[in-house]
């Protein structure tokens, strides 16, 4: 595919709050049925976007219902990110139901496993890395093939504080999320000249069902709070504003960034 390089689009000269509008935009999001992903999807809809939700459990319509209650279009497509053929096909399927245009891709789908590194099996490794990194890359690739000829697009990946600090008993997860940060930077380097901004957010300790077991341990819960200057766990609502910012014209000159959202833990 031969495409002429173009100068990146300027930030529009409009009133500042209008920069955050996503009116008329189409979004594809993985992992949007619960937790952080649900908050991200609903925030984007509140900003004006139509939402296509790629999710393994299509019976969970909570996020879609919230989007439609805002007067926005919501479509659920089945996608098991462990199945690489499904992951590679999902972007094309989203185009088919979203008027042949996806303006924003959000990769939030992921898995976490807590296990001693000495006990991790090859199957464990493949399950986590395939979902968190391999599927993410190929969905980004499909997005790039669509966005490059259009010379515009936003891609927002979800990394983790473990991309930087390694964590405890999460070697496969940390490795995959470290990969997410580097894929984000690599794609940004390649695609910025096509006016495509590729960024990531890196959540710290956030109260979602992915860490219910850890939060149910009083000692572990208190230890996480003690390490955080904000002295609390994050909540999915903490990701609404950053998501709209990084998916809108408000971040037109920001690309290749990993925005850590952790209540200050990274800085402590």
TrEMBL record:
Keywords noted in UniProt: NADP, Oxidoreductase
A GO term, aspect molecular function: oxidoreductase activity, acting on the CH-OH group of donors, NAD or NADP as acceptor
Domain named Ketoreductase: residues: 25-194
Top-level taxon of the source organism: Eukaryota
Family: Belongs to the short-chain dehydrogenases/reductases (SDR) family.
PANTHER family: 2-DEHYDRO-3-DEOXY-D-GLUCONATE 5-DEHYDROGENASE, SHORT-CHAIN DEHYDROGENASES/REDUCTASES FAMILY MEMBER
Protein name: NAD(P)-binding protein
Organism of this sequence: Coniochaeta ligniaria NRRL 30616
């Amino acid at each position: 595919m031969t495409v002429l390089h173009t100068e990146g689009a300027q930030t529009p000269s409009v009133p500042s709050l209008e920069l955050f509008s996503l009116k008329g935009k189409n979004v594809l999001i993985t992992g949007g049925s619960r937790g952080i992903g649900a908050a991200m999807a609903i925030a984007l809809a509140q900003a004006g976007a139509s939402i296509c939700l790629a999710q393994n459990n299509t019976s969970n319509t909570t996020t879609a219902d919230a989007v439609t209650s805002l007067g926005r279009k919501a479509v659920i497509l089945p996608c098991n990110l462990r199945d690489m053929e499904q992951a590679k096909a999902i972007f094309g399927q989203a185009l088919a139901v979203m008027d042949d245009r996806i303006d924003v891709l959000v990769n939030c789908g992921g898995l976490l496993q807590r296990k001693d590194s000495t006990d991790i099996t090859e199957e464990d490794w493949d399950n986590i890395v395939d979902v968190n990194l391999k599927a993410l890359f190929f969905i980004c690739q499909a997005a790039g093939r669509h966005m490059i000829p259009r010379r515009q697009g936003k891609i927002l990946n979800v990394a983790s504080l473990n991309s930087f600090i390694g964590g405890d008993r999460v070697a496969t997860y940390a490795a995959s999320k470290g990969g997410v940060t580097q894929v984000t930077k690599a794609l940004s380097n390649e695609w910025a000249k096509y006016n495509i901004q590729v960024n990531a957010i890196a959540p710290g300790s956030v109260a979602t069902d992915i860490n219910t077991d850890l939060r149910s341990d009083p000692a572990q819960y208190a230890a996480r709070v003690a390490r955080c200057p904000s002295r609390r766990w994050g909540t999915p609502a903490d990701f609404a504003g950053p998501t709209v910012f990084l998916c809108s014209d408000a971040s037109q000159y920001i690309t290749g960034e990993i925005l850590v959202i952790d209540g200050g833990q990274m800085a402590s």
